[in-house]
Design a protein that fits this description.
10 helices; Nucleotidyltransferase, domain 5
């Protein structure tokens, strides 16, 4: 008898690991998302147990994709915070998840799911998604800055993604603005992330905001204040929040000016906090502050724009990692034939 041919269409599962949440989705090669889910990171002292939760979610999505949409999962792509070794598939140290160190993410998930698994730095993955489907589409030279719990960057240079040795290029959040400055979560002082990363920004606000401030009122308690409450209060015109947003823009502009001098990008795409803040609170002043810090000859050579992918950015980033991994495997196989 002839074996019945499967009628399932192929797709991939994209996973975006953040310091506070993990986003999942099934995606096809055109970037259409199916079966999305989001879970708190809730990291414990056991990275193996944490990864088992990820495995369980992958298996659940795999079943839903098959039963609901007629999709067969061909690979998993993981976008994770660095530093990591993308070549070996090892997470070396997640700056905002201290218990996750030197863990073989790729091999662990591959063994547990039976699927090919590919690992990339989250910002490298995000620039792929923005370049493929978002605000950096068509650019030859682009930077994407992910700005949520921490700050990372992905690079497209000369029309191709640039990841550097072991996939660790683009850690622009840890370029130093002041060697004697604020303490960063990575253990060094004065990193850009220490001033504009969500975790560090939240710590600052919790330390300096009064209980009567609008930021505190929106959060419900001082120890619950985060960057989203700052943005919300600033949109209401609160004086304290507006002053803090000005400080945020000042430090971010210093970093962006350095990146303009280093990479000469056509476009700088910003995600999360700036995107939530919007044009009037962030992008308009940020463009002016950045252009004032670079040579006049460079002032009109670049654009600073918000992410075009919104909440889809995370899982699409993971999907891009999987799709790129499958493509590279196919090229390698053909080269050996």
């Amino acid at each position: 008898m002839f074996e019945k041919k499967s009628t399932l269409r192929t797709a991939v599962i994209g996973i975006d690991i953040g310091g506070t949440k993990i986003a999942y989705a099934v995606s096809d090669a055109a970037g259409h998302l199916y079966c999305e889910s989001q879970r708190p990171t809730d990291a414990t002292d056991s990275v193996e147990n944490d990864m088992q939760r990820i495995v369980a979610e992958v298996q659940s999505l795999r079943e839903r994709a098959r039963d609901t949409h007629g999709l067969s999962i061909s690979a998993v792509g993981v976008a994770a915070p660095g530093p990591l070794d993308a070549t070996r598939g090892v997470l070396l140290r997640a700056v905002n998840i201290p218990s996750w160190t030197r863990f073989p993410v790729r091999d662990f998930l591959q063994t547990a799911t039976g699927l090919p698994v590919f690992l990339a730095n989250d910002a490298d993955a995000a620039v792929l998604a923005e370049w493929q489907w978002g605000a950096a589409r068509g650019a030859q030279h682009a930077i994407y800055l992910t700005m949520s719990t921490g700050v990372g960057a992905g690079l497209v240079l000369n029309g191709a993604p640039y990841a550097g040795v072991a996939g660790n290029a683009g850690e622009l959040g840890h370029t130093v603005l002041d060697w004697q400055g604020e303490l960063c979560g990575c253990g060094r002082r004065g990193c850009l992330e220490a001033y504009v990363g969500g975790a560090n920004l939240g710590r600052r606000l919790r330390a300096i905001a009064s209980k009567s401030s609008r930021v505190c009122q929106l959060a419900g308690a001082r120890d619950a204040i985060s960057a989203k409450h700052l943005v919300a209060a600033a949109k209401e015109g609160d004086a304290f929040a507006l002053e803090e947003m000005e400080r945020f823009n000042d430090f971010l502009a210093k970093g962006l000016a350095n990146f303009v001098f280093t990479f000469a990008p056509e476009v700088i795409v910003l995600g999360t906090i700036p995107t939530a803040a919007g044009e009037a609170l962030c992008f308009e002043p940020l463009r002016a502050k950045t252009r004032a810090r670079v040579w006049a000859e460079l002032a009109d050579s670049f654009r600073i724009v918000p992410s075009a992918l919104g909440d889809r950015r995370g899982p699409l980033s993971g999907a891009c990692v999987a799709l790129q991994g499958i493509s590279e495997l196919s090229v390698t196989r053909h080269a050996k034939e």
